[in-house]
Amino acid sequence: MLPDKQDKAFSDFYDSARHNDILEPKMTLMIHLASAMAVGCGA
Asked: Which pLDDT belongs to residue 43?
């Protein structure tokens, strides 16, 4: 789907947004949805 370099960058961003102690759960969910839409996932 993505070249290796972009896939790693996306995964690092996604993981840091998902596993945080700063953002509220609602904001984390919004980041999940936006990230999935950005890469064309139907999740």
From this structure: 47
Q: What is the C-alpha separation between 23 and 20, in angstroms, rounded?
A: 7
Chain segment 1-43, per-residue pLDDT in tens = 678 998 898 888 878 877 888 889 898 888 888 877 887 765 4
Dihedral sign (CA 32, 34, 36, 38)? negative
Q: Rounded distance, CA 29 to CA 12, Å? A: 16
Give pTM, 2 decimals: 0.56
Q: 15: closest CA among 34, 28, 30?
A: 28
- How far from 5 is each of 1, 10, 42, CA to CA, in Å? 12, 9, 22
